[in-house]
Amino acid sequence: MEKRKQYRHLNAFVLLALAEAPSHGAAVHDALLHKLPVFKADTGAVYRALQKLERDGEIASGWDTGQSGPPRKIYRLTPLGWERLDFWKNDIETRMRILSVFLESHGRLVPPPGDGVTP
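Below the sequence we write its predicted structure tokens.
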């Protein structure tokens, strides 16, 4: 599968993870791996998505200096991010309805006898 297609909904899943809990980038990546066992995006792709979402105003960040170790950049959704999350929900519901038509139609197919090749 093409990487670009694999990442088609990466922003949606990043927003979803941050809606569940504000987090730092590595925690977002781990949450995606946990929720989506087939998820193959590398941490770089997640960080690029976080940068784009922040640039677009859908998330905001602040530094957590309260733990031992280096400060962590914590991301959270903005009001625009919550709106965008709703957009993604509607988009994915529409895609699921369309794809279910394909799956239902495919499930009713009866292959022709033989090898399926017509002369």
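Strands lie at 59-64, 72-77.
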